[in-house]
Amino acid sequence: MDSGGFIEQLEAGIDPHARYGELANDSIFWRWHQFGQRSEEAFGKPLFIANYMKDAIARAGFVDVVEKKFRWPLGPWGDDNREKEMGRFNKEWWLSGNENWTLAVGTRYMGVRAKATSRLAFTDTLNQQWSVEQIKSFVAETKKVLDDETSEEVYYEVSVFSNPSALPIANQIHKRHCFCAKTVILCAFNLPVV
C-alpha cells in the first residue's frame, strides 16, 4: 500500500454491556461472554477482534488510527427509530441462531457429548464436556431473557479507521452494514426488504 492510504475495518463486538451501568456477573450475557472466551481458546481463532483491531492496525504502520463504536441494542428499546429497528433485528438474529452457533462450536471444538452424565455449568474449564441437553437449556434461558421486556443489553459494532478525515466514510459504511444485516435477516425469514 502506498503511503497516505487509509484502512477501515468494521467488526461486531461480542462483549456484552448493560445499557446503563455494569453488566452483572450472573447475567446470561456475561455467561455468553465466558463461552466466547472459551470458544476462542478451543479453536484458536480470534472472536474478540473488535477489542484489539485498533492496536493491530496501528502496529501495521497506519497513523492517526481512530476507533468509533456504534451501539447495537439487543432488543427494541433503542433511543431512536433506527436503534429500535436494529435492536429488533439483532434480537431476532439471536433468537434464531444461538442454538446453532453453540452446538456448532460445542460439538466441533469443545467436546460436547450427546447425553448428560451430570449437570455442568458453562463456567467449567475447557477440558470438561457439556451435553447437548445442557446447551439447549442454556439457549432456552437466553431466549427467556431476550423475551423479557426489561432486559436492556447492548453490543457494539466497532469501526477502526486510519484517517480522521475518513469519518464520514465510516458512518456511511456503518449505515450500509446495518442495511445489509437487516436485509440478510429479512431474507432469512422471507420478509420484505424495506
Structure description:
The protein has 194 residues and is of the alpha+beta class. It has 5 helices and 4 strands. Helix 3 (81-109) packs antiparallel against helix 4 (132-147) and helix 3 packs across helix 5. The radius of gyration is 18 Å and the shape is globular. The protein starts with 7 loop residues before the first strand and ends in a 6-residue tail after the last helix. The model is unreliable at 116-127 and 179-194 (pLDDT under 50).
Top keywords for this entry?
single chain, 194 residues, alpha+beta
Oligomeric status? single chain
Low-confidence stretches: 116-127, 179-194
Number of helices: 5
**Looking at the structure, what is the overall shape?**
globular
Q: Which structural category fits the helices and strands?
A: alpha+beta
Biggest sheet layout: 4 strands, antiparallel
Q: Work out the radius of gyration.
A: 18 Å
Average pLDDT works out at 77
Order of H and E elements? EEHHEHHEH
**How many β-strand runs?**
4
